[in-house]
């Protein structure tokens, strides 16, 4: 039954994406850029509804009051495709730095370009990266929020942290608050898997780290607060979802955390 519900959700998810892109494209491109963002945000909400009704997965968000009213950098944990779109309804005007190849996808790439997302060649260095940073600063000077995943790529829940220093350089150069976001959607929407699991989990938006810190000190602080919150939410998700099949990385981390509390 779980496999069937997962299949039904996956079919509904991609049908929802394709149909909305086709039917709403004329409206999307006629609207001003920021107003057009309402269409991707509505798509995100509809996916939450589909996942709740078909799979039985729900979530709640803590700390919405920690989102600054000005431009900022969101620094979420990255575990599955879910967290690439899930928070859009609660963000004002986000911008992503993304692989340039994504802009080549028909329809999707057009949507991305309309929102002035920042494409980058992952192997680029030097002048190209300077241009990327200039574009990033320009967008954030207009009050937009940059979404950047500090670990760079999707990681398994409970996996050992592997943060990349690039976020510290951006923090130093852009001079805006950084908002860490802890969550474990990978427990319910695993990467490289078609299975979707029912249950309930929390997203925790942590207090913003204000600009002005030494980049090295900022980097260490970001890792500390984000990993602490992630560990807390991992223990809570496992306790409140006893039937959830935990990946080996999560099982190992939970055992380590329980051992620490017993010492």
TrEMBL record:
<keyword id="KW-0472">Membrane</keyword>
<protein>
    <submittedName>
        <fullName>Lysophospholipid acyltransferase family protein</fullName>
    </submittedName>
</protein>
<dbReference type="GO" id="GO:0016746">
    <property type="term" value="F:acyltransferase activity"/>
</dbReference>
<dbReference type="InterPro" id="IPR002123">
    <property type="entry name" value="Plipid/glycerol_acylTrfase"/>
</dbReference>
<feature type="transmembrane region" description="Helical">
    <location>
        <begin position="12"/>
        <end position="31"/>
    </location>
</feature>
<comment type="pathway">
    <text>Lipid metabolism.</text>
</comment>
<keyword id="KW-0012">Acyltransferase</keyword>
<keyword id="KW-1133">Transmembrane helix</keyword>
<feature type="domain" description="Phospholipid/glycerol acyltransferase">
    <location>
        <begin position="72"/>
        <end position="186"/>
    </location>
</feature>
<keyword id="KW-0808">Transferase</keyword>
<dbReference type="Pfam" id="PF01553">
    <property type="entry name" value="Acyltransferase"/>
</dbReference>
<keyword id="KW-0812">Transmembrane</keyword>
């Amino acid at each position: 039954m779980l496999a069937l519900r997962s299949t039904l959700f996956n079919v509904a998810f991609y049908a929802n994406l394709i149909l909305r892109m086709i039917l709403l494209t004329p409206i999307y491109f006629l609207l001003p850029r920021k107003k057009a963002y309402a269409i991707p945000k509505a798509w995100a909400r509809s996916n939450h509804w589909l996942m709740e009704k078909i799979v039985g997965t729900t979530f709640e968000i803590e700390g919405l009051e920690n989102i600054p009213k000005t431009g900022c950098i969101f620094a979420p944990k990255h575990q599955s495709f879910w967290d690439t779109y899930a928070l859009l309804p609660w963000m004002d005007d986000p911008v992503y730095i993304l692989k340039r190849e994504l802009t080549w996808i028909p329809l999707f790439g057009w949507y991305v370009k309309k929102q002035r997302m920042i494409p980058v060649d992952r192997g680029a260095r030097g002048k190209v990266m300077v241009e990327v940073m200039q574009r990033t600063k320009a967008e954030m000077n207009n009050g937009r929020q940059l979404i950047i995943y500090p670990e760079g790529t999707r990681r398994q829940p409970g996996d050992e942290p592997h943060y990349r220093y690039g976020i510290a350089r951006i923090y130093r150069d852009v001079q805006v608050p950084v908002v860490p976001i802890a969550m474990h959607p990978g427990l319910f929407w695993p990467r490289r898997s078609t299975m979707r699991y029912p249950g309930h989990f929390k997203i925790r938006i942590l207090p913003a780290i204000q600009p002005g810190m030494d980049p090295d000190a900022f980097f260490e602080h970001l890792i500390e607060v984000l990993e602490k919150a992630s560990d807390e939410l991992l223990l809570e998700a496992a306790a409140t979802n006893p039937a959830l099949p935990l990946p080996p990385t999560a099982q190992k981390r939970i055992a380590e955390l329980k051992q620490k509390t017993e010492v």
